[in-house]
């Protein structure tokens, strides 16, 4: 009996062992097989119907056969695409429609290397958001829009194509849309001509090869703002009312591209870069040379709050021009090579602009996000459907840079981009590029950080021998490999012991002693000899070289010294977490109070204020009250949020004053929540004002809706009814009150089911459905 070698070896002992994730990823089993090379597609769409989410389409596809006697071509095509005919020149071709595929039967088998071209004509229809988004005109609010939402699998729902990321092609997009809409797609604008029925026909061509999940179409009432970086034309497409704001928001783009090009050492790969804003979008999608982005541009006041749009979204999406679009993962199990790199590059941009502390701010945020998702489900970075590709990917690349040093790291990245330009790559290709550029074989690094799951969970204990002037450290890795194999036999492994190097700094009154510990085993010991006196501080993993969790019980005095002296953000944040649990310790309170007032780093002041909110008012109030006057809106927001722990008239009065006077939207929103917590019975007046207060992304109103629900004050229903046209959450809040016995809320929802504003009708209908109120009649006021 003949068996595949892998199966035979696995069964020699009688029982098949579970396949490791590293074996799966390195085998590239997740890379699709297909017997042709997709070369070019011409996608033509017209006759968009916003009521039925439908359109007409025609796609001409050119492929090159990769096998002799190619008799059929299989494309990905959503099952709601109604294929009308397939032709090759004047010859009609047969086709089949199994599931989400289109199988085109060629009239004559193609030989190896032969070029085949055929045209598919179809009627398209989508479920909202599956391939295309349709938004009808809402007079007084916005014009109609239609735009693609490809993601990793959406584009076959609006045109037949090959959807795997590893096969790259060029394409044309030709869209005939209403005359009032601007049509934007990838690449170069070829023509824009008037067409019949108050429409125009717009043609774009993507002349450099890319993966088809990056094909984009946006048709919306947009204005183009032109810019330039070096010889690359830039464009910002925004709603007419956003032009002034757009210059301030997107004006950072040339600088972002300049920083990235210098870091990666590779030229900008595309002939333009456009950022195209659309309605009701989740964030951004890196469609090649034409990124689609949410239209919630921050205004000048929102900039006080360090908005995510400028801080993260713009630099993240710009990084995809190199990572994801230029070099693309060979399969979705290696998708972290897109999102991990893009998230890592955000920190690198701010490192160049504002220094190491600004970069570590970004990586600390990634760290906390990673711990949250890892706590829900532990998965490797490189795996199908991995839940941590953004934060862990960023943190692993940060570790790789620290492991190699700056010059060698960027040399490896440059080799990776050059070797796979306009092509595809795997995690192993990145490791190979590092090896070729630096001579460093980092297979151990990739094994534990990319292919395995989890992170080291350190438990450290310290003991000081005053006679020998020696500090003994016992370092244990306590993570457990408890992940079971799945039904296919695939096992996500958590290493028993992570390798790496940590630096340990021991402070004394006579100076510091620094030692390095090479980690190779699950339990290690380190004796730090020659100390000039008892330790005043022990910093484990100085510089935060390793992604980890750390349990290390220390005296409050040691922690206070580290908080004052450690330049590394992660270490100081870790200390604050430890001190924050010692609410009965006056020394811990004093340290946090001093940090809240005096720390040089905004994030550290934010974290200290949050921790201080759990301490008794007598110890915490003076520092928190001072923090509500901090120059940073982030610190003020944290401080006013911490006031909820103090049930005092002074805290309530301060929160009310903050709402009335602060310049920051986020701070005022936090004040609303605090007032509602401190005075649920007397907060109606402030909540009512907040409900009618405009702010960026309705932040203040959203806080007011949450406060109304928390207080359960049905007296606010009339105010909420007046604001139904502002955002969908108003209708949901009314539905909550209706579901909790408010006749007034139920009547309000019934009245607005026929609201003249179409968007209000949609929001009310959705809120009624989600709240289970369908079929419930409004209360009978007739007395019968």
Description:
- With 784 residues, the protein is α+β, with helices and mostly antiparallel strands.
- 37% of the residues lie in helices and 26% in strands.
- The chain contains 25 helices and 30 strands.
- Strands 4-7-6-5-8-3-2-11-14-13 form a 10-stranded mixed beta sheet, with no helix packed on it.
- Strand 19 and strand 20 (290-294) form a beta hairpin.
- Helix 23 (728-739) crosses helix 25.
- The longest helix has 21 residues, at 356-376.
- It is globular, with a radius of gyration of 30 Å.
- The model is unreliable at 1-16 and 780-784 (pLDDT under 50).
User: Rounded to an integer, what's the Rg over CA atoms?
Assistant: 30 Å
Total strand segments: 30
The low-pLDDT segments are: 1-16, 780-784
Mean pLDDT: 94
Major β-sheet profile: 10 strands, mixed
Q: Report how far the terminal alpha carbons are from each other.
A: 84 Å
Question: How many distinct helices?
Answer: 25
> What is the 3D form?
globular
Side-by-side strand order of the widest sheet: 4-7-6-5-8-3-2-11-14-13
Strand content: 25-35%
Structural class: alpha+beta
Which range best describes the helical content: under 10%, 10-25%, 25-40%, 40-55%, 55-70% or over 70%?
25-40%
């Amino acid at each position: 009996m003949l068996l595949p070698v892998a199966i035979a070896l696995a069964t020699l002992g009688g029982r098949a062992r579970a396949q490791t994730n590293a074996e799966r990823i390195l085998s590239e089993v997740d890379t699709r097989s297909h017997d042709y090379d997709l070369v070019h597609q011409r996608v033509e769409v017209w006759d968009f119907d916003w009521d039925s989410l439908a359109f007409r389409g025609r796609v001409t596809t050119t492929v090159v056969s990769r096998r002799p006697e190619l008799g059929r071509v299989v494309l990905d095509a959503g099952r709601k695409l109604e294929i009308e005919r397939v032709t090759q020149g004047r010859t009609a071709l047969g086709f089949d429609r199994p599931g989400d595929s289109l199988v085109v039967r060629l009239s004559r088998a193609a030989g190896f290397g032969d070029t085949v071209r055929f045209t598919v004509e179809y009627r398209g229809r989508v479920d909202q958001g599956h391939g295309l988004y349709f938004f009808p005109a809402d007079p007084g609010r916005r014009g109609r829009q239609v735009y693609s939402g490809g993601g990793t699998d959406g584009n076959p729902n609006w045109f037949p194509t090959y959807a795997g990321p590893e096969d790259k092609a060029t394409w044309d997009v030709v869209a005939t849309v209403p005359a009032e809409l601007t049509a934007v797609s990838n690449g170069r604008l070829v023509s824009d001509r008037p067409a019949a029925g108050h429409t125009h026909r717009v043609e774009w061509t993507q002349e450099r090869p890319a993966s088809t999940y990056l094909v984009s179409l946006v048709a919306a009432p947009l204005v183009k703002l032109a810019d330039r970086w070096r010889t690359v034309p830039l464009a910002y497409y925004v709603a007419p009312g956003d032009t002034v704001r757009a210059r301030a928001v997107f004006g950072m783009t040339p600088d972002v591209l300049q920083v990235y090009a210098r870091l990666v050492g590779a030229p900008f790969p595309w002939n333009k870069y456009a950022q195209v804003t659309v309605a009701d979008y989740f964030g951004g999608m890196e469609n090649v040379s034409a990124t689609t982005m949410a239209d919630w541009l921050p205004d000048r006041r929102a900039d006080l709050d360090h908005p995510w749009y400028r801080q993260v979204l713009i630099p993240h999406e710009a990084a995809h021009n190199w990572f994801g679009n230029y070099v693309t993962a060979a399969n979705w199990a290696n998708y972290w090579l897109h999102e991990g790199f893009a998230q890592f590059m955000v920190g690198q941009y701010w490192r160049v602009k504002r220094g190491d502390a600004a970069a570590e701010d970004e990586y600390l945020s990634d760290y906390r996000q990673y711990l949250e998702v890892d706590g829900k489900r532990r998965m490797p970075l490189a795996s199908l459907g991995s839940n941590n590709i953004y934060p862990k990917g960023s943190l692993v690349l940060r570790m790789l840079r620290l492991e190699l040093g700056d010059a060698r790291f960027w040399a490896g990245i440059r080799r990776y981009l050059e070797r796979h330009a306009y092509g595809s790559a795997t995690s192993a290709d990145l490791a190979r590029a590092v090896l070729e550029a630096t001579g460093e074989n980092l297979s151990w690094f990739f094994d534990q950080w990319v292919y395995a799951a989890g992170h080291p969970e350190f438990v450290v204990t310290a003991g000081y021998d005053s006679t020998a002037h020696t500090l003994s450290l016992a370092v244990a890795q306590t993570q457990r490999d408890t992940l079971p194999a799945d039904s296919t036999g695939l096992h996500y492994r958590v290493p028993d012991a992570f390798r790496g190097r940590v630096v340990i700094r021991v402070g004394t009154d006579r100076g510091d002693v620094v030692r390095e510990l090479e980690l190779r085993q699950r339990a290690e010991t380190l004796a730090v000899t020659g100390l000039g006196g008892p330790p005043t501080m022990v910093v484990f993993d100085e510089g935060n070289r390793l992604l980890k969790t750390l349990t290390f019980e220390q005296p409050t005095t040691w922690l206070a010294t580290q908080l004052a002296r450690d330049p590394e953000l992660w270490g100081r944040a870790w200390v604050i977490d430890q001190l924050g649990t010692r609410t009965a310790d006056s020394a811990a309170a004093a340290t946090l109070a001093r940090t809240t007032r005096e720390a040089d780093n905004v994030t550290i002041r934010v974290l200290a204020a949050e921790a201080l909110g759990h301490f008794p008012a007598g110890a915490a109030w003076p520092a928190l009250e001072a923090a509500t006057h901090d120059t940073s809106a982030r610190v003020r927001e944290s401080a006013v949020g911490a006031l909820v722990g103090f049930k005092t008239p002074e805290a309530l009065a301060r929160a009310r004053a903050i709402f009335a006077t602060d310049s920051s939207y986020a701070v005022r929103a936090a004040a609303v929540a605090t007032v509602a917590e401190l005075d649920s019975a007397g907060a109606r007046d402030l909540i009512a004002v907040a409900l009618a207060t405009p702010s960026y992304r309705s932040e203040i109103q959203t806080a007011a809706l949450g406060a109304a629900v928390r207080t359960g004050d049905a007296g606010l229903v009339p105010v909420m009814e007046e604001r139904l046209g502002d955002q969908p959450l108003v209708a949901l809040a009314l539905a909550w009150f209706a579901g909790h016995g408010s006749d007034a809320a139920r009547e309000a929802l019934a009245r607005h089911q026929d609201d003249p504003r179409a968007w209000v009708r949609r929001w009310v209908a959705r809120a009624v459905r989600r709240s289970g109120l369908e079929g419930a009649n409004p209360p009978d006021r007739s007395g019968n």
